[in-house]
Target: Histocompatibility (minor) 13
Amino acid sequence: MSEAEQGPALAPEAAVLDALNATESNGTEALNATAKFVATPEGTALAYGSLVFMALLPIFFGALRSVSCSKSKNSADMPETITSRDAARFPIIASCTLFGLYLFFKVFSQEYINLLLSVYFFVLGILALSHTMSPLMCRVFPSSLPNKQYQLLFTQGSGDSKEEIVNYEFDTKNLVCLLISSVVGVWYLLKKHWIANNLFGLAFALNGVELLHLNNVSTGCILLGGLFVYDVFWVFGTNVMVTVAKSFEAPIKLVFPQDLLEKGLEASNFAMLGLGDIVIPGIFIALLLRFDVSLKKNSRTYFYSSFLAYIFGLGLTIFVMHTFKHAQPALLYLVPACVGFPVIVALFKGELTEMFSRGSN
Model:
């Protein structure tokens, strides 16, 4: 790849974000490699500044929504809890998934694999974007319009042996969200436009931060530590991550064109950031926000310290990448920052033991 094609990166296994209930990350940036492109300093600054800004949105709002999600009694909004056992196994599962995708792309036609993935993420993206928009729709939906209630019910068997398979309740607001999300989905499916990609990517990331809950800080450290090793190995030790990232066409990354100033919305030379670099640190930052809330001190010290640490780590990733002209595994910098900063704060406040012993709620 050329210098303009390198960046903090994406783990292709984020493609199974829904199936694995988490994504982790990263590796290298797979950009438009059909022709060498030298980005202007302005274009580069705009692209990476926009990526950092977009990465902060799902972390900040996803963390806030995770607090109310943890208190929800609605089964549809119940979070998925990640235990220490899940955290220890995840780097192994992610490695197997990554290598499996690598073999698939080597053996089978890339065109057909990406067609299947496009359909899969088309459905997931519509559902994720609809769920993301739901709180906003509740605020802006005109009170003059009727908000009818609906129920989707599938059962198996009959009489006393009847068993519910699907029992989903929704209303008019949800249908409007679904309709808008479907329009974005069709746009993405037909055009693969980078804005449609980002809308789906932001929705996936926000849902991940909101609904994936670490049960305690120790589990978070196990998960981040394991993925730290995973990320460094697959980026620096092999070409597997790069190969899959360059072959993988799915909204599992945020992208922003470095030639936007020259070509406008039709720009095609992208800088990119993998969703794993957002979701994995994001669920840890959300955990610290819930820890802040549990202390009942009307303070968000740990949340803000970890949030600032994320900005620092991501900025450092970009700086090192451009200094050494080589793609960098973002978790190499994000993990020490996001774990180290809050731990140092806890040491100064004398709350380190409580931080590691208290649960996520």
User: Anything to note?
Assistant: Confidence is low (pLDDT under 50) at residues 1-35.
